[in-house]
Amino acid sequence: MEVAQLWDCQAWKADGLPLATTSNEACKLYDAALQQYMGWFNDASLGGLEGTMSRLVFADPDFVMGGVLVSGLELMGTGKALADPGLRGNLERLASLVARQAGDKLSEREREHARAIQLFGDGRMWEACLAWERILHAHPKDLLALKFTHDAYFYLGKREQMMDSISRVLPSNVGSRHYGHLLAMHAFGLEENNLFDLAEKAAKQALQMNERDGWATHALAHVYEMTAAPAKGRALMSQTENNWEVCDMLACHNYWHWALYCLEKGEYEESLAIYDTKVYPRLKESAGMLDVVDACSMLYRLALEGVAVGERWKELASATRSHVGDHTLVFNDLHLLMSTLGAQEVSLTKQLTSAMEERRGDVRDQDRVARRVGVDLCRAHVAFDAGNYGECVELLQQVRYDIPCMGGSNAQRDVFNLLLIHSAILSPDPEHKRLARSLLAERDAVKPGSCMTQRLLRAAHSP
């Protein structure tokens, strides 16, 4: 997949978004990077997104928005610790670039971009969102601010803000070259707020504009997952695979959705086959955190269903152990914990749980998330692994309605709902068995017709 026609300095200025560089090459490479980021693909002719960024910095080392992109994309990937020397070095260089831009050479919009990135790099994600929103109020066509804030809201579990951030700018972008991507992002926000009909309509409209919009396919996949329509989901994924697979940054996640449809139907071998041939190989190649989370979640869900996954846990723990010390997102750490527990990596498990327990600050958003839900969720996973199902139930019960604050999608966080249900079924406490049946009644009410719910109900009613 390749980028479309690239904008030079004059084109950016004509769109009301002038860039503080005289290099047309830098402007075009900035555009190329933005297109790949928005479209979830790597343009091989440019060396992918990473190669594009290297060329961008070389074209104009003093280009502030180039520095914003370099640091911003690193941060949004959540695959490095905030204290990582390379990441800190890029943030320091960005601050130095801004400081050297005297007078009105640098616009207030660009300065606010740089400020937002520094806030995010300090773990102050919510404050960064407010800075990006200030940009968007004045410049609703600034798609970098929009994509950054949309992604950050996702990490913060702010589903209404994620939807509204797109709603606010849609009227200003009608007819723009990226309007289809905005519809896809809006579709996902609508879906996360349980507005499934509107989400499906927006996603299909985006796909009519660009059948290779992997994020639009992804939004539609979420709709079919949350409405218990695995047949529709599998048909979508199989019939359009050649279209969305080219979005290589997202393909692993879309295959994860495909595997979930199989799991919903109790077709475990099919789920494992997708893991073995699509999910895990892509994780090994990319080492991206989204792919890491997908792999951990897939194996954990299969294990909850009683599927023996063999040596896959050890392979996965080995492939992901380099991220155990990152602690960028509580959501990420909990998924890494699934792999270390599955692989019986005692020292890595201890490292993850201790780090969660020791988060004491009040400036970083993720420290507050750790205290609010992370510690209890870690303890719950450890309890379940040890066969202490009643303890797991009690820990999860007290935080279940706060779990969305850790971010992720409704479909991704469903693994914690399933952990609670399985724990309640397995617990020797009769009260927990009754709780399991109540939880499944809740699930059936909002997701009627689910094969998985019916399987779990039978287990909850068995002696």
Automatic annotation (TrEMBL):
Please list which residues make up the signal peptide. none
Q: Which family, according to the similarity comment?
A: Belongs to the TTC38 family.
SUPFAM superfamilies named among the record's database cross-references: TPR-like (SSF48452)
Q: Which residues form a coiled coil?
A: none
Keyword Heme set for record: no
Per UniProt, which keywords does this protein have?
Repeat, TPR repeat
Organism (species): Petromyzon marinus
Superkingdom per UniProt: Eukaryota
Q: What name does this protein carry?
A: Tetratricopeptide repeat protein 38
